[in-house]
Request: fold
Amino acid sequence: MGTLIVGYDGSPCAVAAFAEAVEMAKATGDRLVIGFGYEPPGYGEEMEPYREAVRHRGEEVTAEAIEKAAELGIEAELALVPERPSDALASLAERYDARAIVVGSYGESPLRSAILGSTPHKLLHGAGRPILVVPYREDS
Reply:
């Protein structure tokens, strides 16, 4: 049994990534680690209330994924990590010696992703693990 890391923030593209990870776990017997990175940009003590609010929100949105995995009989655990999302997922992949990281994408252009630094773009260029980027399509 291996491990798949799934980036999950409750967004439609994260839901698509979770659905794909569930199908992979069913086929392989892998367990899921549902990761949520909650480090906001900026430093200082004034960021602490914001950091805690984001962490709390992470607990709320990931609860639905943990519950769904349990309903489907898939072993899953939650990992809230006080790092930016791409760093959090890469750290989790190393910690769990993950087979792959699964994330969703709204399908930004490569230029936009490079300039804005999307999580999938950052992972593809630095995670050191296979990355499955699941596109979100409104019509699906």
Observations:
- The first helix runs from residue 12 to 28.
- The CA atoms of residues 113 and 121 lie 6 Å apart.
